[in-house]
C-alpha cells in the first residue's frame, strides 16, 4: 500500500458518512485500530513512587498504569477477574495493593491475586489463573503509554520519525507541567481527526489564528515512518497573540494523538473515542517559563489560546456530525492541495478497516 498516493483520483472521495455514526463500524474500529495503537495514560511525574497509579480509558477499555514495589511500571485493564468490578476509581492516586471496590478481591501491585473473601486460593481457584489482564507499557519524553495488543511495534517504532523531530525541541522532563484541558464532544473521533489534519478550515473557523499563521508558513505533509501528519510551522509575529511565535512542529499521529512542539512549550492532545458518535479530548501542557518569558509570552497565554482553538474545532465538528447523520450527505471530495493530511488520515482508516495496513485486524 502506498500511504502517500491518492488511490481514488486527484480529488479523493471522503470516507462514507455512515462510518461516522454506525455502531458496527465503531465496533470494527475498536479492534482494528484502537486496540492496536499506543495511548498516553499518564505523565511520568505522576508515577514516581511505588503504588502510584494513573487511570484512563482507551476507546471503552478502562485501564491504568502503576509503579510496582520493584520500581517497574506496569499496565492493567481496570477490570477485576471476579465479576468485572473496577480496581481504581480515581484518575490518579497511590495505593499499597489493588483492592476491588465491589467484593474486595485483592491483587498486589504486580497484578497477582492475593486474596478473595469467601474463597480459598489454591482450593476454590488457582490464584495464578486470575491475575489482572496486563497491558504493554512504555515511556517516551516523560509520557507513559499503554497498548492493548501484545503484537505490533514497540513504542519507538510506532512513533517513527517523531522521536528525531522531538529532539529539536525542549524535552518534557525539562519543563514544568502546567495543567490540562478536557472536553467532551458530540462528534465521531474521525470528524475531529479529519479536521485536525488540515489547515484548510483555519481562516474561517479560527479567525484569530488565520491572521497570525498565514498559509505559506505551514508545510503539511504525511510521514510514512510513524504514520503521522507533520505541520512544520513558522509563526508570523503577532502583537495580538504573543504565544504564537518562532518555530513549531505539530503532529497528528494516527489514530488520535496530537503533539505540539515549540521553542518553549509542549502540549499533547488525546482524541479518545467514547462511542460511535462521541469523543473525549484530553490535553496536557508543559512550558519552560524562562524561555517563554524571553519570547515575550507565558504558559497561560498558550493554554488560553489552545482552549479557544479546541472549542472552535469541536463546535464545527459537532455541526458536521449532525449533518453527517442527517441522511442527505453520503460522500464528498477532498482537495489534493489543501487536505493532504486528511487524505492520508482517511487512507490509514481505510487500510486499517480493510486489513491492508500490514496485519490482518483481529476479528471484532
Ligand atoms: S468484582 Fe471484584 S471482587 Fe467482585
Ligand atoms: Fe482547527
Would you mind describing this structure in some detail?
The chain is an alpha+beta fold and 364 residues long. The chain contains 9 helices and 17 strands. The chain has helices at residues 23-32, 155-159, 162-166, 189-196, 202-205, 207-212, 289-294, 299-326, 340-354, and strands spanning 38-43, 52-58, 61-67, 73-77, 92-94, 98-99, 106-107, 113-115, 134-140, 143-147, 176-185, 218-223, 228-234, 247-253, 257-262, 265-275, 278-287. The strands form 3 sheets. Strands 1-10-9-4-3-2-5 form a 7-stranded antiparallel beta sheet. It binds FE2/S2 (inorganic) cluster (FES) and fe (ii) ion. Fe (ii) ion (FE2) binds next to helix 8. Fe (ii) ion binds next to helix 8.
Task: Provide key terms for this protein.
364 residues, alpha+beta, Rieske Iron-sulfur Protein, Naphthalene 1,2-dioxygenase Alpha Subunit, Chain A, domain 1, seven-stranded antiparallel beta sheet, 24% helix, globular, disordered N terminus, disordered C terminus, binds FE2/S2 (inorganic) cluster, binds fe (ii) ion
Amino acid at each position: 500500500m502506498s500511504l502517500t498516493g491518492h488511490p481514488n483520483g486527484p480529488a479523493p472521495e471522503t470516507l462514507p458518512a455512515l462510518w461516522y455514526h454506525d455502531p458496527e463500524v465503531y465496533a470494527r474500529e475498536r479492534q482494528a485500530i484502537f486496540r492496536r495503537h499506543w495511548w498516553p495514560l499518564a505523565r511520568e511525574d505522576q508515577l514516581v513512587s511505588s503504588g502510584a497509579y494513573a487511570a484512563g480509558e482507551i476507546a471503552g477499555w478502562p485501564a491504568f498504569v502503576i509503579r510496582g514495589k520493584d520500581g517497574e511500571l506496569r499496565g492493567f485493564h481496570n477490570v477485576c477477574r471476579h465479576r468485572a468490578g473496577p480496581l481504581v476509581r480515581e484518575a490518579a492516586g497511590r495505593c499499597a495493593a489493588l483492592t476491588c471496590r465491589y467484593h474486595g478481591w485483592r491483587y498486589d501491585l504486580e497484578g497477582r491475586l492475593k486474596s478473595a473473601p469467601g474463597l480459598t486460593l489454591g482450593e476454590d481457584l488457582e490464584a495464578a489463573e486470575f491475575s489482572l489482564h496486563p497491558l504493554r507499557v512504555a515511556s517516551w519524553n516523560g509520557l507513559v503509554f499503554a497498548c492493548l495488543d501484545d503484537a505490533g511495534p514497540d513504542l519507538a517504532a510506532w512513533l517513527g520519525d517523531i522521536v528525531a523531530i522531538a529532539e529539536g525541541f525542549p524535552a518534557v522532563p525539562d519543563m514544568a507541567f502546567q495543567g490540562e484541558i478536557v472536553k467532551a464532544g458530540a462528534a465521531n473521533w474521525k470528524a475531529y481527526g479529519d479536521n485536525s489534519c488540515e489547515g484548510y478550515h483555519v481562516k474561517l473557523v479560527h479567525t484569530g489564528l488565520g491572521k497570525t499563521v498565514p498559509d505559506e508558513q505551514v508545510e503539511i505533509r504525511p510521514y510514512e515512518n510513524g504514520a503521522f501528519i507533520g505541520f512544520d510551522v513558522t509563526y508570523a509575529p503577532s502583537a495580538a497573540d504573543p504565544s504564537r511565535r518562532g518555530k513549531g512542529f505539530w503532529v497528528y499521529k494516527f489514530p488520535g494523538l496530537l503533539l505540539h512542539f515549540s521553542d518553549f512549550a509542549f502540549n499533547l492532545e488525546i482524541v479518545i473515542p467514547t462511542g460511535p458518535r462521541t469523543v473525549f479530548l484530553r490535553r496536557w501542557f508543559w512550558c519552560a517559563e524562562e524561555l517563554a518569558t524571553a519570547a515575550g509570552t507565558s504558559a497561560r497565554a498558550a493554554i488560553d489560546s489552545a482552549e479557544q482553538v479546541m472549542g472552535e474545532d469541536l463546535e464545527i465538528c459537532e455541526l458536521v456530525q449532525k449533518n453527517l447523520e442527517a441522511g442527505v450527505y453520503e460522500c464528498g471530495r477532498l482537495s489534493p492541495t489543501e487536505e493532504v493530511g486528511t487524505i492520508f488520515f482517511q487512507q490509514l482508516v481505510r487500510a486499517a478497516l480493510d486489513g491492508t495496513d500490514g496485519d490482518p485486524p483481529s476479528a471484532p
